[in-house]
Amino acid sequence: MKRITFSSIILLLFIFSSVESYSQGFGGKRLFAGYNLSMFHATAFSDYAPTGTARNYKAYDAWNVTHHLELEYVLGRLHVLGVNYFRYRTNEGLWGDSYPDYLHLNVQGYGFYYKIFSARKGSIAPIGTWWKFQLSNMHCRAVEILDPGNTDNSTRMDFRIAFGKQIPIFSGLLLNMSAETAIPISELSTGQGYLEPGGYYWERLDSYNGINVKIGLSLPLY
Amino acid sequence: MKCSHQVLLLALLCLAFVLSAQDFDNYVPIRSSGKLPVEFRTSSTERYEEERNTISKRSGRKERQVQDKFYLESSFSIDQIFLSGKVLFNDPIGSYINKVADEILKDDPQLRAKLRFYVVKSVSSNAFTTQRGAIFVTMGMVARIENEAQLAFILCHEIAHFKEGHVLKSYVHQSVIQEEQGKGKGRYKKANNLEQIIQQSEYSQENERKADAIGLELYLESSYSTAAVPSVFGPLIRDVDKPISPLFRGYTDIFSELVPAENWDKQIRVADSIIEIRNRPHKSMIENFGKKPHYILEGINLADDIDIIKNTGKKKKLTKPQETPKIASHPDANEREKLVTQNLPKNTSGSLFLVSEAEYATVINMARFELSELLIENTGYFDALYLTLNLLGEYPNSKYLKKELVKALYGFSQYRFEDQEKPSFFKYKSLPWPSRRFEYFLEDLSKVELYLIALTKVWDSFEEYPDDPYYRKVLLDLIFDLLDTDPDFIKIFEDEPTLNKTLDQLMENAEFQKMYDEAQKERKRVDEWDEFLGTFKGRRSKAAYFKKITRRGYKLGIDKLVVFNPGFYRLDIRKKGKNPIQYVAAEEQQSNIREYLLKAGNDLDLDLKVLDSRTDQSDQQTESFNDISLLETWQAEKMMHDEVDMVGSKYGEIQAMAEKYGTPYFVNMGVISVRARFPQNRYVPYALAWVPVLWPFLGYETFRHEEVSIVYSLVYDVQEGELIAAPYNAMQAKVKNVMLYNSLYYDLYQMKSKKQK
After folding, report:
1. End-to-end CA distance of chain A, in Å?
2. Are the beta carbons of B720 and B708 closer than 8 angstroms?
3. DSSP B422-489
4. pLDDT tens digits for range B495-534
5. Taking CB atoms and an 8 Å limit, are B742 and A127 in contact across chains?
6. Mutation test of the interface with chain B: which of A77, A79, A130, A218, choosing the one with the most B Cβ atoms within 10 A?
7. Are the beta carbons of B742 and A77 separated by less than 8 Å?
8. Which of A24, A123, A219 to mutate to test the interface with B (most CBs of B within 10 A)?
9. ipTM of this complex prediction, to 2 decimal places
C-alpha cells in the first residue's frame, strides 16, 4: 500500500511536469533534490539526557543531528509537494543507576509534505518564506551495545510543522533555512520492549524530534 | 549649353524650395532620425565617473563632496530626460536652433563645440541649460516665438548660464544653506525652511539677472536686431499662461467651423443653450443674438469684456503686474525687460532673421502643429481646440489639423460627459478677448450638445477618411457611450430632440447602422464583464479582481510580446532629508534586466522583443527610441485618462506599431527595490539594553533594515487600448541576479500560459 502511494506521488509529479513544455518554478525548473541537516543542542532537553555519551553523560556538548534527503516539486506559485527520507542514530547512552542499559537508537523514516509559500511576503516557489506540513513514518530500532543481537523495534508516526526560507545562492543553488517541530501521533505508533510507547526511550525519541533547526542545499533537477 | 545650365539651376532651386518647404496639408509629425547621439547612449555611471574627474583636487573636502553629489544626481537626471522620449534629435526644429546657435557663437568655436541644443516635447514655455552643455528648448516656447532674433536672445541667456556655471553654483549654494541650517552654524544657521527657500530664490533670481546681462552682451555681438529684445519678455515669458492664438495673423471663424452652417437646427440649439444657460447679464450678446452665433459674438468688442468681468464677478479684474515675489526662480518679466532695455543701444540695428526667414516660418508652424498634439496628450483640450481652429484658418486642407480638431473635441466631450473637468480646460485668470469668447462658448455647451458636436464631427471625418482606424474607433466609442445602460446616464439623453433627430438622420446611413450594431455587441460584452467584476467584493471591484488574479496566476495566453523600457529603481529611504535614489546600483541592475528578459523569453519559447534604446546595440536604435517614445506617451495618456474611458489620441500610430511588431501586446516591466528602516517596536531596544546577554541582539536590532522589492508589469492590449493585467509582486527581499531573473521569468510565464478550461 505504501509503495503504491509513493509511486502514485512520483507519477503525479511527472504528469504535472509534462502538461506544458515550459513551466514556472526556479527559472523554469520545478523538480528539486536537496540535502538538509537538522540539529539542535541536546542540553535543551537535558531532563531526558537524550544523547549523552559515556564520557559526558550530561551532554553539554552533544547535538541532535538528523540527515534528510528531499525531493520536491513546485506545483504553482505558492505550492510545493515533496517527499523526504531521513535517518539518525543516537550516541551510546549512559542513563545513571536506574538505567544501566547501553543502547543505540537507529532511526530511519520517510515522509511526504506540502509547503505553502507566503503570498504576503511576495514569495514565488521555491524562493521565499514558507510553512511546511509533513506526515512522517519512522522505524526505530534499539540495539543493546553489549548484546547487539538484542533489539527492539517500533514504528512511529508524527506530524511535523516547519517554518523557513529559501534563497538562491551561486546563481543555481537554493539555500534552505528552517525550524521544525514534530508532534507524535500516538494512535498510529507501535513499539515493544525498550521502545514501548510512553516509556523512557520513547520520550527520548520525542525530545529528539521535538525541535530542530535545519539548514541545507537544494539543486534544481528538471 | 548655357540654357541647359540655367534650366538645371532653376530645377535645383525649385528642388531646394520643395525640400525646405513642409507640406502642411499632409503634415507628418516629427520623429527623431539618423544615428542615436552618443549622449543618449553613454551610461549615466560612465558619464558620472567622467564628470567627477573634473573636480579640482585643490578644493576643500566638503566642496568636493558637494560637487561629487551634484555630478551624480545631474548625470542621472539629465539622462532620464534624454531617455524619456521627449527629447528630439536630428529633427528640423533642433537643427534650426543649432543653426541659430552657430550664428551667435560663430566667433567662439571653442564654446560652440561644448554646446548641444535639443527640443523637448513639452507644452510649457521654457528653456534650460545643464552643466554638461546640453541646452533644451521646449516645443511650447518655440511655438510662441515671433522671430529668429527672439530665439537668439533666449539661447544667449541659456549660454550665459552655461558659461557662468550657474547650475553647479546654485546646487552648491543650496547645499551650503541646508548644511549650515542642519549644523546650526554659519550664516544660515537660524534659517527656517521658508527662509531657506527665499534665500535660494534670491540667489536664483540674481543668477537670472546675470544671465540676462551676459546674454545681452553676447547677443549684441551678433547681428540680430536689438529691437526684438524687449519683445522676448512678452509672449515668451510674461504671457505664457495665455493661449497661443493671439500670435496668429488670421482669425478663424471657430464657431462656424465647429457647427457647420448647413446644420441649422444644431446651430439654433447651440445658440439657445448659450442664452439659456448663460446667467451673465450680457445684454449686447443676447440682444444681438440672431441666426448666426458667430456674427453676434464677433460683434462684441474688448470694452464689453470689462463689463462682463465686473458684472459677473466670475473673472478676476485685470491687475497690473506685481513686483517679483520673494519665492520665485526668476525675477518678474517686467523687471527683466526694464533692466535689459536699459542696456540696449539707443539706435536700433540688426536683423530679425539671419539664418533663414523661410526656415523660421516652417519651423514655427511645425512647432505649432506639434504643440496641438502635445496639448491633447496633456488634456489641454481648450488650448488645443483654439490653436487647431486658428491653424485651420491658415491650412484648411490639412489632414493632420482636421484630425487634431476631432481629437480635441472628442476628448473635451468625453471629459465633460464623465464630469471630469480638469483645471487645464479653463485655467486662465485672464484671457485676451477672442479666446475668452471661445471659452464662454465651450463652457456653456451642455453635455449632450458637446457630445453631438463631437459625434457629427467624427462622423464627417470618418466619411472623409474611412480608412483611418482612429475615426472608426472613436465613432464606435461615441455610439458605445449612447448605449450605456446606467439609468443616470440615460436620463441625460432623455427628451433630447436634437439628439434623437441627429441619430435618426445618421441611422439612415448603412455604414452607421453597421457600426451601431457593432457597438451594441460590445456594450453587451462590457455589461456582462461589469456584472462579473461586481461579484468581487471590495471598494473597487476591478482592483479586487486584479489582486485575485495576481495571487492565483493571471494566465494570458500571449505568444508574442514587446517589453518596452524595462526599469530598475533602487531607493534607500532610511535617512530623512537624504536623496533616496541609489543611481549607480540601479543602473547596474538595469543592464541585467534586458538580458534576463531575453533569456527568460528564450527559455519559455516566447517570441519576445525588448525595446530599450540605451542597451540596444543594434542598428535599429533610433527606431526603437521613437517607438519607446510613442509607447511612453501612449501609456502616460492612458494613465491620465484614468477616470475617463476613452480612445487615446495615439490610437492610429499605436495600431501601426502593433502591426509592425506583429503583436498587440506591449508590456512595461520593472523593479522598484527599497531599503527602509525596520518598522520595529521602539521599546524593543530599551528592553534589550537591560540584559547584557542580549546586547548582540540590540546591535542587530539597531542596524536592522527592511528590504522590499516590487516587480511590476503593465500588460497592454494596444488594439483594444486596454490594460489587460497589472500584476505586481512585493517581495520582502533585495532582488538581484537569480532572484530578479526568477521574478521576471515567473511574470513572463504567466503571460505565456493559457487558461485551462
Report:
1. 28
2. no
3. -TTTS--SS--HHHHHHHHHHHHS-HHHHHHHHHHHHHHHHHH-TT-HHHHHHHHHHHHHHT---HHH
4. 666 677 777 777 888 888 888 888 888 888 888 877 777 6
5. yes
6. A77
7. no
8. A24
9. 0.77
